[in-house]
């Protein structure tokens, strides 16, 4: 019979704190997309689960091949290798306290020192990073921001839509917190190391695998599950 070749295995860093895109236990929408895309081109993936910042430092240092979920922005183009195709595009929105709604009706009207809760080192897009007419209140988790917003300690928080849906429901905050308006979209990638051997090869393979699972319908199934 034909010899069965064992698939090659690579290790990627999986951040542990962006539900439901990447969960504490190494599961999540991104994790599934990455694993499924590589499997389609004959590569197995194991995850090194850890904090976002630490994994990205390991990528820059060449200690690990790559990590996700990294929004591709002008500020990080020089630091990492990226494939051509994002894993997915995430929409973020401003959320408000139902009893203390914002005066603004779109992000361009946030010019009056509104206190907006965000998470340390997360990417929220170019418009947000340039807006110096608001107060950016940084904490270490989305849930903390939701709790502060429910208590009226901040005026708004920015959340990615699938995160908002899950956390607001799980914490029974639907009667307290609502979406105000869109923020920005982020194209989310695996950031590959510029110094790790064969990184460009694996970036190309990921693009190839994403094309395969999009064509087969497997990709859409994963998105719909979250």
Description:
This protein has 226 residues and is α/β, with parallel strands linked by helices. It is 31% helix and 29% strand. The chain is built from seven helices and nine strands. Strands 1, 2, 3, 4, 5, 6, 7, 8 and 9 form a nine-stranded mixed β-sheet that branches. Helix 1 crosses helix 6 (199-216) and helix 1 packs antiparallel against helix 7 (218-224). The model has no long low-confidence stretch (mean pLDDT 95).
Radius of gyration: 19 Å
The structural class is alpha/beta
Number of helices: 7
The major β-sheet equals:
9 strands, mixed
Q: How much helicity do the residues have?
A: 25-40%
The mean pLDDT is: 95
What is the straight-line distance between the termini? 41 Å
Q: Which residue ranges are poorly predicted, with pLDDT under 50 across at least 5 consecutive positions?
A: none
Question: How many beta strands in the DSSP annotation?
Answer: 9
Estimate what percentage of residues fall within beta strands.
25-35%
Q: Judging from the principal axes of the Cα atoms, what is the shape?
A: elongated
SSE arrangement, N to C: EHEHEEEEHEHEHEHH
Q: Brief overview, please?
A:
With 226 residues, this protein is an alpha/beta fold. The protein has seven helices and nine strands.
Secondary structure layout plus pairing:
Elements: E1 8-15, H1 29-40, E2 43-50, H2 52-61, E3 66-71, E4 81-82, E5 88-97, E6 115-119, H3 126-130, E7 135-139, H4 142-150, E8 156-160, H5 161-170, E9 177-192, H6 199-216, H7 218-224
Parallel strand pairs: 1-2, 1-3, 6-7, 6-8
Antiparallel strand pairs: 3-9, 4-9, 5-8, 5-9
Helix pairs in contact: 1-6, 1-7
